[in-house]
Amino acid sequence: MALAREFKALGASVIFVLRTRRTIEAKELESICDGLTLLDWSLTPEEDAQEVVRLCRQNQIDAAVVDHYHANAEYQQPLYNSGVRWLQFDGCIQKQLWADWVINPSLASKECDYSSARQRKETRFLLGPKYAFLRGEFAQWQPKANFRKEVKKVLLTFGGGDDKGATVFSLDAIKSLDPSIERVILASSANASIPDIQKWMAKNPTIYATLLIDDTEIARNMAEADLAITAGGMTTFETAAMGLPTLMIQIAENQRRNARGWHKEGIAVDLGPINALEPVFLQRQVKKMMQDEKRREKVSYSAKALVDCLGARRVAQDLLAS
């Protein structure tokens, strides 16, 4: 969505091709795109790619953007053979990459890591946090997101889908914190754990906790928080942009490299996979971060400097100039 808005701002036409079970997503897209095609979930990755090729030819597309978990070599071959130019998202360094552009905003991504995956010498790699895509609200809130010495609000968010039980796990682990410290929980209606979160809140009425479902002011909530416990995916770029000290729990394998990258640079704390995490360790790390004001302040300014909210604009300009 962020990239599409930048393309539109630069005068380009935007056509979406996607699979979705949620009508609301399609309706949201209609406001910023010039065409929308919904593909059937029964299509194989190869059939999906062939449909993308057909639509590119039909609409005389200059460049395609592929964000697909199954965009492996078999998916890419129809695109490459057809002459379609495309940008491909890659978060875990695939075995083979044929795209014209490859984007990986992880702090851990280095071009040398792609030496064996690179199939074409002309492929351009757009690597690092400066290419992270954030919604416009983050650019608006970034100047207002100021470091605060005291931790009064802890944000918990684990992406837009199933949190794998991470929210309740984290709430239990930090239960011993001062009950007046607000726990702000951001979740989507697609999160199967919402009933469990609500039950936890009902059982702990003396703890100040707020559950926000499908909230539209994510940037504001992050800017107003003092500490975050999140998953290790794209949310980490959002908390970094807001200068929010963050502890990450990996709830999916594809978050490992990104989480470790932030941790290695001292920008955030990687707590590892949720299935190997002990509640007492999370509790200790949260308290340690809360008590270390200088560390939180350093992390806040360093994180902000890495993510300037201009990633989508950079990529849009790059693709349109090529």
Explained architecture:
The protein has 322 residues and is of the alpha/beta class. It has two domains: 2-134 and 309-321, Rossmann fold (3-Layer(aba) Sandwich), CATH 3.40.50.11190; 136-306, Rossmann fold (3-Layer(aba) Sandwich). The protein is 39% helix and 17% strand. It is built from 13 helices and twelve strands. The protein has helices at residues 2-9, 23-30, 45-58, 73-82, 136-141, 166-173, 194-203, 218-223, 235-241, 256-264, 279-291, 293-306, 311-321, and strands spanning 15-18, 35-38, 64-66, 86-89, 101-104, 124-127, 153-157, 182-187, 209-213, 227-231, 246-250, 269-273. A six-stranded parallel β-sheet has the order 9-8-7-10-11-12, sandwiched between helices. Strands 3-4-5-6 form a four-stranded parallel β-sheet, with no helix packed on it. Strands 1-2 form a two-stranded parallel sheet. The radius of gyration is 20 Å and the shape is globular. The mean pLDDT is 93.
Considering the chains and any ligands shown, give keywords for the structure.
322 residues; alpha/beta; Rossmann fold; six-stranded parallel sheet
Condensed summary:
This protein is of the alpha/beta class and 322 residues long. It has helices at 2-9, 23-30, 45-58, 73-82, 136-141, 166-173, 194-203, 218-223, 235-241, 256-264, 279-291, 293-306, 311-321; strands at 15-18, 35-38, 64-66, 86-89, 101-104, 124-127, 153-157, 182-187, 209-213, 227-231, 246-250, 269-273.
